[in-house]
Write the structure tokens for this entry.
Amino acid sequence: MTGGETRHRPYVVAPGGAMRAALRLARLHLDSRRVPAALAVVAACAVGLRVALRWQWEAYGALQLPLIFETGCAVAIAVTATSLLGEPERVTGRWLPLLRLSTTLALTVAAVGALAVAGAGAHLAGGTVEVLRNLAGLVGIGLLCAALLGGAQAWAGPTTYLVISLYALYTQWHGPALTTPWLWPARPPYDLGAAVCAALVFSAGVALIAVRGARDTGPETARSG
Amino acid sequence: MSTGSVVVPVPDETTRRTLPALTATSGLLRLEMRRSVMLWMLPLVATLFWFITYRPSMAYPPLWNVRAMSMQTTALSVFAPTVVGAAAWLGWRERRHGMTDLLIGTARPRWSRQLATWAATTCWAIVAYLGCGGVLYGVTAWQGAWGGPLWWPAVVGVVSMPAFAALGFAAGVLRPSRFTAPLVAIGVFLALQISLQFIHGDDSYWQISPLVAGPWEIGPDTGVATFYRYLPDLPIAQVLFLAGLTAALLGTLGLPGDAGGRRLRRCAAVVTAAGLLTTTTAVALAGTGRLDAHGMIAIPLLHDEGDDRPLRYTPVCNHTPIPVCLHPASAGYLPSVTAALEPVLTELAGLPGAPVRISQAAARYEQGPDNRVSISRAGPPTSGTPQVFHLLLPHQTATAEFVAELRVDALQSIVNSVVGGGRNASPAQQAVTEAILGTSTLAPGSPAAAAAQRLAALPAAARHAWLVEHVAALRAGQLTLEQLP
């Protein structure tokens, strides 16, 4: 072609093409976030919890075990916030926030479900309500860390919170007990203040990740496999 | 002008080879230390240490045994996930940056580059541990804790750092993924916490866990390592285990074909084998432990008989009519003990059968079935002429519980030694004991309870005068309730 003329080919969408495109976009997004691996980790945590619940634990052990597995699920969800593509991905379209939001929510629901199933029929301290509250709060912390520090380092937040929470649980036996609702794992399952705190942290984390995504840390982000 | 020449020493062949290698290694280490992610973990670790170790330790009295032993457990719980996570993060750095192939062509073999990264992480972890532990030990010394610091718990903590770093680093190298750092950090934390649940009895292999600073079910006890030395048996086994684990993990990294030359890989194989052997030996040693009478785990093969000799000390006494003398490590308890015992001691002073001094006794520990440990007074309650009463301080550290337990145990024994009777006490002896102790254990409305109330209502001086006159008959069981005032 020599002239300045430009020929536009009409954009034709094949029947069912929009749906296929949406599915492909979702699949690519999930792959880029290593969601299948995260689901495998969640499943492994659920299996680990189920195996652990077959033993008899003392009261402190029975409370700390589920929390450790919940943290395992939470860090797996938090590190999926990292994008393989980094900065260029942010300008690709308006679906990205929605994809991030739905990925995070779906993973959280899957993790709660997996842990609840793992605890079914066994003596799971606190029951499913506590799993939901603790996991949501821990995921929120992980997502906030992903937004502030970068997805790959997001594990530092939930891990730190785990250590502090286990100490708070320990103080229930060896006082003075820590009773702040911000340390929700140390509160009873139906404690309203603790549930509100966990919900606030989860909402803040999900909102921040959906809108802004994980912090881009350059080459660290681009190649984190 | 002199034309004397300057003599420059010519380095021999070995020096010519070693010097640049050392310079390069130290340069690489400096570089790694500047780039280590562990550096950014230090504020986090310091905050956690303050919250979980320092703050609760300051709630304990300034006792080296309690603070050092609790530091070993809690500080390692703080350091384990952070050091392991940071090391795992650094372990897959080359892969993350896509530099694996590029770095094959460098002068340094892969194993030596990896060791430099591990060493930098370890250095920062040790600096952090020493800093945090140093502050805790410094404050404890400044608060006037008796005796010297217990170094073995700190040594176990320091030696744990290379092991944690090696564990995380090996995981990062062998399974490079964004999930490795968080999962291995939480996995190690889970393993450490769970291992404690498996400790049953004093001969458990799980005592090798670096979180264990003594008999697990006793925890940091005020009676341990006070009258006798802190036994280094278990810490030595733990240090061996940690050193072996570090060597085995680091050696494993040198085994693959691309880790270095044949000589280097052979060396790595030897290091791995030695590490595994040491680790197994240490675990086996921990399984031969037994709880000794002084409350510590003794391992026969590592035990030094010299550590069983009691420590010398000058007791600290108060000025009650019957003086109470405590071990200087427990001097902080003297005001509480005085407050609890003084009213009764004043009343009993000078009576036949009353002790002339109350002296703190060492505790005797005995392993029961499973994790049960019985703690009792070592030796008889009284000894010598004139009589000295041996007091076993309660385990409680909270003042109210401490005083309550003292009143129940020690005062009852002291009053019984004066009034007589013991378990087969006559009603008069029961009533007098109740009146002196100010308790209400007798059936309400019974004649003995009424007599006790009458006697308790008398002024202390009048009661003392009556006791001086009648204590011999009372001890002999010759007095009836009607003869009490």
Summary: The mean pLDDT of chain B is 87. Chain B touches chain A through 31 residues (CB under 8 Å). Chain B has 14 helices and nine strands.
